[in-house]
Amino acid sequence: MDVMIHVVREIIFLFNEIAFYLLVGFCVAGILHVLFPESIIRHHLGRNSVRSVVKSTLFGIPLPLCSCGVVPMAASLKNSGASKGATVSFLIATPQVGADSFMITYSLMGWVFALFRIIASLVTALAAGIAVNITGEKNPAREAVSPAAPGEDDSPAARLKSIFNYVEYELLGSIANALLLGMIIAGAITAFVPDGFFERYLDNNFLSMLLMIAVGIPLYVCATASTPIAASLVMKGMSPGAALVFLLTGPATNAMTITTVLKVLGKKATVIYLSAIVIVSLALGYLLNITTVHFGFQNVMMIHEHGVIPPWLKIAGSVALALMIGWYYLKIKILDKLRKDIRVEGKKIKLPVQGMTCMHCAGTVKKAVESVRGTSNVNVFLDEHLVAFDMEDDVDIRKVKDAIRHAGYEA
Predict the structure, then answer these.
(1) I want to staple 114 with a disulfide (CB 3.0 to 4.6 A). Which of 77, 106, 133, 149 is the partner?
(2) Nearest CA-CA partner of 88 in 100, 101, 70
């Protein structure tokens, strides 16, 4: 019983540390959602060029997409004419760090590690994308990169109105389960692993980085949820470089992502994609270890050493975030399920959709269907992999299917 109480206390402590910063990250993500809709990203990603790789990396880093949500979007960008290099860069940069994960990194590990994480994501994505473009075949002219789908309302007023739904439905919905699981794992590590464990039993920094690669590549973990785990490992004596390797490989790779890259981009691009992540993350992890020791940044990376905001604001942030998560589970997981049969009953069209794995996927499919003129009352049921909607008689169902395929899914 005492051990469980200890674990719960550690989880509450970590939640209290990250809540306010995570809310700030959500606000920034909502603003980015307004400033950089997917139609703009599609428009700026070109063919085989360094410029397209740089653009895809810069677009990808601030976007708060998890590794499952970024896969269909990257596939859609490729189908819209983006080069393989730009697609790979987007696949790496986007899930490694976003506005929300940057803020949670700052709250738990300090500004040095947070800044280094941004730079590491930038370097990894650029290296992989440029290597893919240099070594790959030149793409023949493909269909032009598509602007926004017909009927999609991209007006500033409409996008501002959608910020709350985006944060609550897509962003929080995509990370809620993983975030809570990450907090539980981090709390368990803090409670059960003795202080100095890694210094005592795994004092070889290079071996610890290799271990993190072995764990991170096949594991599905989002950038936000992986951060408390990395912070707890550092608190128990793991080197900052090994933690960085875990944060670079975990969000950017998993079995589903690797399979999709292989299918969409081919064997050569997949090998370069994985090799770049491994090589660059090892090099940057080693550099971070050297930098940390040389400049004495160890204390800056400890949770207790950078209390920037007052305690009352931390508590307010924790209450607000807890209410948001509670409302998400109440509405999406309970109330919507209870009303599901009533809402679907009477719908003219029900389409199975393959490839949806998170709330961002569901939101993307919903927008795709709504972009077709003549559709209304669109509801996406993630667990059933189903989209249901009303459709006017003169609308061709193939337009709806094409819109869903254009978004990176199969109807």
Answers:
(1) 106
(2) 70
| Residue that wins the pLDDT comparison between 87 and 307 | 87
pLDDT for the residue numbered 300? 52
Domain 346-406 CATH (choose: 3.30.70.100, 3.30.1460.10, 3.40.190.80, 3.20.20.30): 3.30.70.100
Which one, of 378, 63, 121, lies nearest residue 248 by Cα? Answer: 121
Burial of 300 (0-12, 13-18, 19+ CB in 10 A): middle
Amino acid type, 22: L
Instruction: Show Cβ contacts of residue 278 under 8 Å, excluding neighbours closer than 6 positions.
Output: 213, 217, 249
Query: Is 389 strand, coil or helix?
Result: strand
d(CA 258, CA 269): 10
Domain ranges for the chain = 2-319, 346-406
Distances (CA, A) of 45 to 52, 81, 146, 354: 5, 8, 10, 26
Contacts of 276 (CB under 8 A, 6+ apart): 92, 124, 127, 128, 131
Read off the pLDDT of residues 17-34 as tens digits, 9 standing for 90 and up: 888 888 887 887 777 766
pLDDT at 341 exceeding the cut of 60: no
**Residues contacting residue 388 through CB under 8 Å, at least 6 positions apart:** 343, 344, 347, 349, 350, 351, 378, 379, 380, 381
Sign (positive or negative) of CA dihedral 66, 69, 72, 73: negative
| Closest alpha carbon to 226 in 204, 207, 244 | 244
Residue 142 CB: number of other CB atoms within 10 A? 13
